[in-house]
Design brief:
Layout (H helix, E strand, L loop, with lengths): L2 E7 L3 E7 L5 E8 L3 H15 L7 E7 L15 E3 L2 H13 L3 E7 L3 E7 L2 E8 L3 H12 L4 H8 L9 E2 H4 L12 E3 L10 H24 L6 E5 L8 H12 L2 E3 L7 H12 L1
Parallel strand pairs: 1-4, 4-5, 6-11, 11-12
Antiparallel strand pairs: 1-2, 2-3, 6-7, 7-8, 9-10
Length: about 270
């Protein structure tokens, strides 16, 4: 069948994208493992089984992500190459969004900011704030660290019980400073704040920190569109948060379909072009 696999081996999850020779997508899959190698082989096995394939159907594999550094040589005798994560997510994000130029924000365990212009990728900066921050803080505050659990819990939270809002401290508002904006994350934690409220506060803190950094990153490159990728894009609060940044700063944010798989998709495209 000549299937090409792009595999993104991250710190906590492994994502697989399968492409046919004509570039069409066969399938996408994500798994979680105890370590990178276990996650890699578990993800491959699950993808092959769920798509009723055999190893002989796989033409080549392209690995990316931090976990790819633990893999040497070919996998099961299948020609295996590697592409660095920045190039993979840059290529994948533009392809998923149907763009040729953009600022690409990869929100994984941490967050990276890339200016991608017609296939050329420039790493602008990175931040330690990301999904890892979300999991770590929620583990200490609400006893949860799994992304799905946090997502469901935070959806029921009320930020008014956690954050200090501009409207709490000022009667005046400006074009870039309205009453509903956050003045201080966790600056107004109520005595009876629930676990859902605290989880919502952590999500808001992470998203607003990343949003602020995207505004600054666009000042260093010509891009006026920002493509958001990574698992953090699936949070219910992500789109509303970035719509606020869009409204105040005139930046267009794009969350493409399958944004979680942008890096794996880029790796598969890299292999397809070879």
């Amino acid at each position: 069948m000549g299937i090409i696999l792009g595999i993104d081996i991250g710190c906590s999850t492994t994502k697989v994208v399968g492409l046919r020779q004509d570039g069409s997508t066969l399938g996408m899959l994500r798994t979680k493992g105890e370590d990178q190698l276990t996650s890699l082989f578990g993800a491959m096995g699950s993808f092959i089984a769920s798509n009723q394939l055999s190893l002989h159907d796989i033409d080549r594999i392209c690995l990316t992500g931090q976990g790819a550094t633990f893999v040497e040589g070919d996998i099961y005798g299948i020609p295996t190459t590697q592409v660095d994560e920045f190039n993979a997510v840059g290529k994948g994000a533009l392809a998923l969004a149907g763009r040729e130029t953009a600022l690409v924000v990869s929100m994984g365990t941490g967050t990276s900011f890339l200016y991608v212009n017609h296939g050329r990728v420039k790493h602008i900066c990175g931040s330690g704030i990301g999904g890892g921050t979300l999991g770590g803080l929620c583990r200490r505050l609400v006893g949860m660290e799994r992304f799905g659990q946090i997502k469901r819990l935070a959806a029921d939270g009320d930020l008014k019980n956690v954050d200090l809002m501009v409207g709490d401290i000022s009667r005046n508002s400006t074009d870039t400073l309205s009453a509903e904006l956050t003045a201080a994350n966790f600056g107004n934690v109520a005595e009876d704040a629930s676990s859902a409220d605290l989880a919502a506060g952590v999500v808001n803190l992470v998203l607003q920190a990343i949003g602020t950094m995207t505004v600054l990153a666009t000042k260093t490159c010509p891009a006026k569109e920002v493509i958001l990728t990574g698992s953090v894009t699936t949070l219910d609060q992500t789109r509303p948060n970035f719509e606020t940044f869009e409204r105040f700063y005139g930046i267009r944010y794009i969350i493409p379909e399958n944004a979680t798989f942008a890096t794996a998709y880029g790796a598969a495209l890299h292999a397809l072009e070879k």
